Amino acid sequence: MRQRFGFALLAYAFAAIMVGTTLPTPMYALYSNRMHFQVLTTTVVFSTYAVGVLAALLVFGRWSDALGRRPVLLAGAGFALASGVVFLFADDVPLLLLGRVLSGLSAGVFTGTATAAIVETSPPERRDQATTIATVANIGGLGAGPLLAGVLVQYAPDPLQLSFGVHIVLVVLAVAAIVAAPETSSRTGTLGLQRLSVPAEMRPVFLTAATAAFAGFSVTGLFMAVVPTFVKSVVGIENHAVAGLVASSIFVASAVVQFAARRIPPRRAVAIGCAILVVGMVILAVALHLPSLPLLVVAGVVAGIGQGISFSRGLAAVAELAPADRRAEVSSTYFVVAYVAISVPVIAEGFASQHLGLRTAGVGFALATAALAAVCLVAIVLQERRSAATR
Question: Would you call 222 exposed, middle or buried from its count of C-beta atoms within 10 A (0-12, 13-18, 19+)?
């Protein structure tokens, strides 16, 4: 009985923690007004999240094998609680940066450990679906954050505090869920930094899959950091709930499609995802050029579909080819590429907006991402042709 409920409890905890990582998305415009900073500062504040994620992946990536899943998950929840408290009292940029780093640490700790725990507590007949369910909990939590915060900021009192108060309650419940769930680790691992490496024989496949992940995650970074500003400054709508809805559209589409696309062969799926991402970026460029709110939502949905397929199936392609004893290293390297993509291109967008204007920089970002996804698509097609010729 505890095993059965543990699966659901851990999935809830995973989603609840990830809600906090995107909760500030509709609030960046309010912070910029109160603290008098521009889009570049917004992108830097947002991107410090990736610093926390990468630090957690590299430092704590192997700890749950040695210490157990529960202690590491509780540490991740602790980082989430600390982040929420910092945001409750944040009145300057350094506190915003600290809150985002703590939020990134919570996400980085949870990403691998919660996925492993969910798989290990799942019923035997559902083990093949457990990874997908963990991914949906992850992406679903990311999508719920902007939507929840947008509604509360727009229609409830204390716009910069209430959302984080709600999230603190969700995290406290997540702590209870983690304590109630069974421990699944045999504690046979050792402490140490997570190595990053890719075997030479699989580097061509890894390069294309990682390039697709880079393109897709750069778009999710844009939607988390800058799209609410697009809604306000380019489209001319100052409703925070609408901004949260647009930002969450990419995550909702990604979560749904990852569950639906799990039976598509990995390499073919990455190619399909790249093609769809190109279409999404063209729609985004048009939406910003016109400007058009409906097209902005459509762009988020289409880009989310492309990102979800290419990322999840790209990870499957990498894991499929990696030697069993090096799978963790290769998967961690893949995630590092993805989280670098969430930060660096978005900061570049912030710099570009200062010199070219927000709309022009956004159109350029969309077209550059489309070009990267198209290059990845061509590379996959050429790889498939070479493979077919040598059979």
Answer: buried
